[in-house]
Specification:
Chain lengths: 110, 895
């Protein structure tokens, strides 16, 4: 089933990568998630997810330049692959189909 | 600008911990490591601002471990494994070659390490045995015993392994959160009668829950009910055989001390490594029905009776909860009973054998402190052996720098050189393990026989975990011995090593080596001098004039027999010059006492006593200062009216201003467990040592032993003191034993010479001396081996120099002097450090506990030094003389 389904957190990370575009590297992703998802996100978790997404072929990465605040180490930037983009689109359309099937009555009573 | 702002100085910037960075780089896949380290660094910088440097570094360190996950860890690469394997093979090969090339040095190293390690092996085996105590109980980790800390109204306090029955009962009634509890009592003893045979039997009174708490498997009988009814007895397989022979014992009845018991169960024999040892268990209800009216039995303060309470706590329970409830009980009960303030605590089962020594212990425990001291001493000996290895390896380093240099040129890294030298050391130590295992087997019986207690405490049998521990220990020793040479060689630069060996600063190593020799010899001298001083002091203590004579006096335990027949039969023997009776043997640590009141009736003070007959004082040659021996010979306890006291008692109560003559005729109130009455002083004896020599002179009062003492229901177990005048003690003992058998065929003869009792009383000292003596023997052997190696090496390297000196006209004597001067100086330095240290240690720490000791003599202080010096000089001398006598032409022509 690898590569076919997206977990909730995986989806969030993919979206963040897409949103950050050229600035998508691990620490920035963590910060962005903290801001928008309003929950404390650990670097370790994001790291593991990025690694998994890359294994699934949904993102690709390249090393950037070394900087001083990183102790002379390079950033690893992530980008969505075509497979990644289509996975996002697929998830979104699936959700919308499900949303559309809910009669509007339900929302009123809630 | 000459001054830089500190914060932009690159070195001043706070950095994440280096070890954590290296750790990540080591375990992490290289492609992940780069950005992971970068990310962590970025967080580190943020944390410095928000949380400070210290916490930032801490978090970094923790994160280094957090990222140790399946996706980050690099798989072991086949090639590194292969290289490691090949390198280990190569290290092994070069090590074996190197070991076998230098036979003399390898032998010295192996033998030295083996001697040191044999101590380690003994200690490991010892620890192994002590730790295996009570391990067979399934619920062992949840079992606790009650310890009683008692402070008696009379002023003395003590900690008991035992407790009172009432404590046990109160726990059963009031304490919640206890799964099971059992009261036991260890004083069941009697003569069992089966058919016509009489066999003595001992055991515990125990509640039925005892069999549920402990795992003593039952062969026959019902675990739940076997100990329920009064007069039920459960036997072990061995005791069943002892009592009934081949007959089936289960379900039979037997008479013990004329009471009928039913055998309701047979247990498997109690394992050796159990702190509870028994032949039989008798239902606790037996004791309860009998002691219903005994106020002592039921009293809160009777913790000195041999009652033991064991608790089984439920899993995951907190001892603190139980302890709080116990504290509450103690508080209420101590209010009600003013005889003693008792505080009870829980002692885990596994701490019983390794804990502190408690009074009334079922089996003598091995105090943790003693183990630490032993461990420390053993460590010193082992380290000394390691020093030898380090020393000789470094001394011979010149020869191996070339090899190391070449290795480095070919591409060996530091770690590989280090590995090589460590491998070599470990191979030597494993070789030493074989030898020391042989020594272990030889030493084992000797060590066990050092102290009679050890015989009953440990077996030192070899088990698989023990062998594994031995091997691990050998490897550890190898690493400790080899680490310094390994580091030294690993740090040598290839250039230096190949270009000019003499440019390497080994002179720093020379001082280091010298100080190792000094440390080694200092420790050796401390050991041997302690042995000498201890031995002389011990002999002085044994020969100490106690104030009466103990020579040729045999003390025989009556074991419940009537004394008259025995006394008559013994007096009929020609070798026996006198027989007296007494309650206890004094001066060996036993005590019996009573409370004495003089005119001031409110002032009752503990006075030590012994109950004796009229022959006791003359037989032991006590010196009467005034008055006389017991005058009247009352037949009953009630009719006694006389007491004999020592000077200290007079001084204590200020009787007649301490004047013995005037004290005669004064009256005292004397109360003990057996009596309470007014007695008249008829005699005053000179002060003597009632206690052991580490105690002060005590107030003592002798009361008269009447024939009816042995007729009372609570039979007193007394002694006969038999004075012998014989040229053939073996023959005499045999005849006395014959007499015993004719009177009491059931119980084995139990008689010992007074001097033997005294020796046993100071047994701890003798054990200590034997242990230190043994260690000092090993330490001398090791130090001598090491010194020998050094001397051989030094003379070898200076052979050419010596030859030239000889050609130029130096005498043998002057050459020996030149060669041995350096070593002699080291020995003198060691002596200057060791002797005053030992002297002060004994004077200020050890002998302070013995107020009556003899001063330390010069002989024992210097004796050890002379012995060590003699051995060292023989070794130095033999080698240097050999070197000095070599024909210089032989040496010089080969160039």
């Amino acid at each position: 089933m690898k590569g076919t389904n997206l977990g909730e957190f995986e989806e969030l990370v993919l979206l963040t990568i897409a949103a950050l575009r050229a600035e998508a590297y691990s620490v920035a992703i963590v910060d962005e998630l903290c801001n928008y998802a309003q929950r404390s996100v650990k670097l370790g978790v994001v790291h593991a997810v990025l690694n998994r997404l890359e294994e699934k072929g949904l993102v690709k990465s390249y090393l950037g330049e070394a900087t001083k605040e990183r102790g002379g180490k390079a950033k690893r930037f992530y980008q969505l692959t075509t497979a990644g983009k289509s996975a996002l689109v697929r998830t979104r359309s699936m959700r919308e189909q499900l949303y559309n099937r809910i009669p509007s009555l339900v929302w009123k009573h809630a | 600008m000459s001054r830089q702002h500190p914060s932009i100085h690159p070195d001043r910037d706070p950095q994440p911990p280096r070890w954590a960075q290296q750790f990540i780089a080591w375990y992490c896949k290289p492609q992940l490591a780069e950005d992971l380290l970068g990310d962590l660094h970025e967080y580190f910088q943020r944390n410095i601002k928000s949380k400070g440097v210290f916490r930032a570094r801490l978090i970094y360190g923790i994160d280094a471990f957090k990222f140790l996950r399946s996706y980050t860890v690099r798989p072991p690469e086949f090639i590194t494994l292969l290289i490691n394997w090949i390198m280990i093979g190569s290290h092994l090969k070069t090590s074996v070659r190197n070991v076998s090339r230098n036979k003399l040095f390898s032998t010295i190293n192996i033998v030295g390490l083996a001697i040191g390690m044999s101590v380690g092996l003994l200690l490991i085996a010892f620890m192994h045995d002590l730790r295996s105590y009570d391990a067979f109980h399934k619920n062992g980790s949840r079992i606790y015993r009650i310890t009683s800390h008692a402070k008696f109204r009379e002023g003395f306090s003590s900690t008991f392994a035992s407790t009172s029955v009432k404590v046990g009962k109160l726990i059963q009634e009031k304490v919640s959160g206890v799964e099971e509890s059992a009261i036991m009592r260890s004083d069941f003893a009697g003569d069992a009668k089966i058919h016509d045979r009489v066999v003595p039997l001992t055991g515990f009174y125990a509640e039925p829950s005892m069999l549920r708490i402990f795992s003593f498997p039952m062969v026959k009988g019902n675990v739940a009910t076997a100990l329920e009814k009064p007069y039920s007895i459960v036997l072990t397989e061995t005791s069943a055989k002892k009592l009934f022979g081949t007959e089936e014992a289960f379900g039979k009845s037997l008479h013990i001390n004329n009471l009928e018991y039913q055998v309701t169960g047979i247990l498997k024999d109690v394992p050796f490594f159990s702190h509870i040892q028994f032949e039989s268990l008798v239902s606790f209800s037996t004791l309860e029905t009998r002691s219903m009216h005994d106020t002592d039995f039921l009293a809160w303060a009777s913790v000195y009776q041999r009652n033991y309470v064991y608790l089984l706590l439920p899993e995951n329970s907190k001892t603190a909860d139980i302890q709080a409830q116990l504290d509450a009980i103690c508080a209420t009960e101590n209010e009600a009973d003013s005889r003693a303030a008792i505080h009870v605590t829980l002692l885990p089962l596994y701490d019983i054998m390794l804990g502190e020594t408690l009074e009334n212990s079922i089996r003598p425990a091995m105090p943790g402190v003693a183990l630490w001291i032993l461990g420390g001493l053993a460590l010193v000996v082992i380290l000394s052996a390691c020093f030898n290895y380090t020393n000789l390896s470094i001394a011979r380093s010149m020869k191996r720098f070339r090899e190391v240099g070449l290795r480095k040129v070919i591409g060996a890294g530091r770690s590989q050189v280090r590995q090589q030298f460590l491998t070599e050391a470990v191979i030597v130590s494993l070789g030493a393990l074989l030898l020391s295992f042989g020594m272990f087997l030889v030493l084992r019986p000797q060590v066990i026989s050092i102290a009679p207690e050890l015989l009953n405490m440990v077996k030192l049998e070899i088990t698989i975990p023990m062998v594994l521990a031995f091997i691990a220990f050998a490897i550890a020793v190898g690493i400790v011995a080899g680490i310094l040479p390994a580091i030294l060689f690993a740090n040598v630069s290839a250039m230096q090593a190949l270009k000019d060996v003499s440019s390497i600063p080994v002179f720093r190593g020379l001082n280091f080596r010298r100080s190792l020799v000094v440390v080694q010899y200092t420790l050796t001298l401390i050991f041997i001098t302690s042995t000498f001083i201890g031995y002389v002091q011990y002999k002085d203590i044994l020969a100490f004039d106690l104030g009466f004579t103990t020579e040729n006096i045999l003390n025989i335990e009556l074991q419940g027999n009537q004394p008259e027949v025995l006394i008559n039969k013994l007096n009929a023997l020609p070798e026996v010059t006198g027989v007296s009776q007494s309650k206890i043997v004094t001066s060996v640590g036993n005590a019996w006492g009573g409370f004495v009141k003089y005119k001031d009736l409110n002032d009752s003070t503990l006075v030590f006593s012994n109950i004796i007959d009229e022959h006791y004082l003359p037989l032991h040659q006590y010196q009467l200062l005034a008055g006389q021996n017991f005058v009247t010979r009352p037949a009953t306890k009630a009719a006694t009216s006389e007491i004999i006291v020592n000077e200290k008692t007079l001084r204590l109560f200020n009787i007649a201003n301490g004047d013995p003559q005037l004290a005669i005729g004064e009256e005292l109130w004397f109360s003990s467990r057996l009596e309470r009455k007014k007695l008249t002083i008829v005699g005053v004896i000179k002060d003597f040592h009632y206690g052991k020599l580490n105690e002060d002179i005590k107030p003592v009062a002798f009361t008269y032993l009447t024939p009816d003492t042995y007729l009372r229901p609570d039979k007193m177990d007394g002694l006969l003191n038999v004075r012998l005048a014989t040229s053939d003690p073996m023959e005499t003992m045999a005849r006395i034993q014959e007499v015993w058998k004719s009177v009491d065929p059931v119980h084995p003869f139990a008689g010992r010479f007074y001097q033997e009792d005294i020796e046993e009383a100071y047994n701890e000292l003798s054990v200590m001396i034997k242990v230190i003596g043994f260690l000092s023997f090993l330490a001398i052997s090791i130090a001598s081996l090491g010194l020998f190696g050094m001397v051989v090496y030094t003379t070898q390297t200076r052979l050419k120099e010596m030859s030239i000196r000889k050609v130029l006209g130096a005498t043998t004597g002057s050459m020996v002097f030149i060669l041995s001067r350096g070593f002699a100086v080291l020995l003198v330095i060691s002596a200057v450090i060791a002797l005053p240290l030992t002297y002060l240690f004994f004077q200020k720490v050890v002998l302070i506990k013995f107020p009556f000791h003899e001063p330390i003599g010069a002989g024992e202080l210097v004796g050890g030094l002379l012995a060590v010096l003699a051995i060292a000089l023989i070794m130095i001398g033999s080698q240097t003389i050999k070197a000095a006598r070599t024909n210089p032409a032989e040496i010089l022509k080969s160039e």
